[in-house]
Amino acid sequence: MKNPKRVLGKILGKEADLAAFEASGESIELLVETLREVQKMRRLAQWLREHSGIEAALPPESFHKLLDLPEINFHETTDRNLDVQQHSLKDVRQPGDPVTVANLNTYLRELFRDLSSLSQSKTNDHGTLLLGPGISGDLVDRVNDYILRLRRLHWKGVGFLFTGFQARGIEKQFEALFPDARRAHPLRHHLKEVQWELGFYRRCLEINIRWAATGLDLFAVLRRDALHQTVENVGELGSGLWTVVYNGLQLKTTLPLAGIRLEDGHTLFNPESVPLHAA
């Protein structure tokens, strides 16, 4: 990198005291690379917020709600005797305590695991979602009700021969909810496919509830056909956190000087408290 000090000055702005950074003896070039990684993470966080509702930089109260999830609340350590000890964040953390970068990494790791599993299920079992463009969480039970009502009208041996008028009335209600889901109409001809698809949507509901504190809205993601990209961006954001943590071990003076504190993950994502400029 040519003249990393000049690049650092552009990133931090004119008011930055570059002499203090030089006096630290730490690598200015590594600091620049790390701050650029933070800028990239901010772009990813913004995309996730706009396209999935996910707030990457959770406020303390929201993160504290996630401690109801054992995968986030508990962590294990091994002592000298190789005995495994389990620790609870609830025992040592107050609801208003800053959310550390380590906390954010744990949260994003578990969120990635759930979203990745869901995306794999979609790829393997639901390549094309019939109701995807119009589905929302509050419609899942209504669609299930339409299916059950149609099945009751399907008489053994004669099908809808004597109940066709009633069946058509149900199908019209379904079509009004999903006018663009042409491949699912008429519903009586696609009962198995739609019912199979409902299982996927119920899993989406479960994940939405599990991660409600983050703002995740999987049905908005599905309507935008953005599940794969959401999974990729969550994973990339988690990788970025690890990069910042790893580099931070060599930037114990200059990273805090730049405003980035690993004990407060909010500093990574808030451009108002820690502005970083293009360079």
Question: If you had to describe this structure to a student in words, what would you say it looks like?
Answer:
The protein has 279 residues and is mainly alpha-helical. The chain has 2 domains: 4-127 and 206-269, no CATH class; 132-189, no CATH class. Helix content is 57%, strand content 4%. Helix 3 (28-52) runs antiparallel to helix 11 (227-248) and helix 7 runs antiparallel to helix 8. The longest helix has 25 residues, at 28-52. The relative contact order is 0.19.
- Name the poorly predicted regions: none
Report strand order across the widest sheet: 1-2
| Helical content class | 55-70%
Bulk shape: elongated
Structural class: mainly alpha
Arithmetic mean of pLDDT: 95
Strand content: under 5%
Main β-sheet description: 2 strands, antiparallel
**What gyration radius follows from the Cα positions, in whole Å?**
25 Å
Termini separation:
12 Å
Question: What are the main properties of this structure?
Answer:
mainly alpha; 279 residues; 13 helices
Outline the fold blueprint.
Elements: H1 4-12, H2 18-23, H3 28-52, H4 60-66, H5 70-73, E1 74-78, E2 84-88, H6 101-125, H7 140-153, H8 164-177, H9 191-210, H10 218-223, H11 227-248, H12 254-257, H13 266-269
Antiparallel strand pairs: 1-2
Sum this structure up briefly.
With 279 residues, the chain is mainly α. Helix content is 57%, strand content 4%. The protein has helices at residues 4-12, 18-23, 28-52, 60-66, 70-73, 101-125, 140-153, 164-177, 191-210, 218-223, 227-248, 254-257, 266-269; strands spanning 74-78, 84-88.
